[in-house]
C-alpha cells in the first residue's frame, strides 16, 4: 500500500489515473496535457505500473495504458477502517457532549 500511495502522491500520476477512469489510452494522448519530455512522462507510467495501478500493452507501435481492475481495493479497505474508527470516536464524543449538556441543565 505504501507504493500505491507514493505513486498517487504526484499530481501528474493522479492526473493520468483520473484520465484513465474514462478508459484506456495511448501514452502520447496521456502525455499531451503535461509539459514534459516523453521519457520523463514514461517514468510516471512506470511508477504507476510498479504500484499495480495500471497495465500497459503494445498495439502496433503504440503503448496503451489501462487502469488495473481492483487496484485501489487495499487502500479502499484501509481507508474504510479508518473512517469507521473515527466515526465511532466522534459518536462517543457526541454522546459525552449530550450527557454533559443534560447534566448541566439538571444542575441549574
UniProtKB/TrEMBL annotation:
Gene Ontology terms, MF aspect: DNA-binding transcription factor activity
Keywords annotated in UniProt: Coiled coil
SUPFAM superfamilies: Winged helix' DNA-binding domain
Positions of the HTH arsR-type domain: 1-87
Coiled-coil annotated residue ranges, if any: 76-103
Top-level taxonomic group: Bacteria
InterPro entries, sorted: ArsR-like_HTH, HTH_ArsR_DNA-bd_dom, WH-like_DNA-bd_sf, WH_DNA-bd_sf
CDD domains for the chain: HTH_ARSR (cd00090)
Pfam family for this entry, one: HTH_20
PANTHER family: SLL0088 PROTEIN (PTHR38600:SF2), TRANSCRIPTIONAL REGULATORY PROTEIN (PTHR38600)
Protein name per the record: Metalloregulator ArsR/SmtB family transcription factor
Phylogenetic classification of the source organism: Bacteria, Pseudomonadati, Pseudomonadota, Alphaproteobacteria, Rhodobacterales
Amino acid at each position: 500500500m505504501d507504493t500505491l500511495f507514493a505513486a498517487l502522491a504526484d499530481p501528474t500520476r493522479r492526473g493520468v489515473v483520473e484520465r484513465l477512469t474514462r478508459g484506456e489510452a495511448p501514452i502520447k494522448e496521456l502525455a499531451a496535457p503535461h509539459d514534459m519530455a516523453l521519457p520523463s512522462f514514461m517514468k510516471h507510467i512506470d511508477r504507476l505500473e510498479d504500484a499495480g495501478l495500471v497495465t500497459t500493452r503494445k498495439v502496433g507501435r503504440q503503448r496503451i495504458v489501462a487502469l488495473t481492475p481492483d487496484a485501489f481495493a487495499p487502500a479502499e479497505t484501509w481507508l474504510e477502517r479508518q473512517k469507521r474508527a473515527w466515526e465511532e470516536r466522534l459518536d462517543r464524543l457526541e454522546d459525552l457532549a449530550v450527557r454533559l449538556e443534560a447534566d448541566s441543565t439538571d444542575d441549574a
